[in-house]
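Listing S7. Sequence submitted for prediction.
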Amino acid sequence: MRTVDDFGVMGERPSHPHLLDYLAGRFVEEGWALKWQIRNIVLSQTYRMSSRPDPGFDGIDPANQLLHRMPIRRLSAEAIRDSILAV
């Protein structure tokens, strides 16, 4: 079963373990600075990518394993309501 947020024993193996190792290494190098880590991720080119599919890439990587676009994720009405109530 595919899991998106569980890297434990029951979860799916990460698709990019070297990226996780890199981010973890940089996190330690920067003194465990969470603010720096968030800024590093948010300012990355991958984070700023469009979610619009590109036909050229979709033929090569239909499952988006290479992360050529941001995956589209729809939220349920309950999740939106809960987020608004939390704020």
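Caption to Listing S7: primary sequence and predicted structure tokens for the chain studied. The radius of gyration is 16 Å. The helical segments are 17-29, 34-42, 55-60, 77-86.
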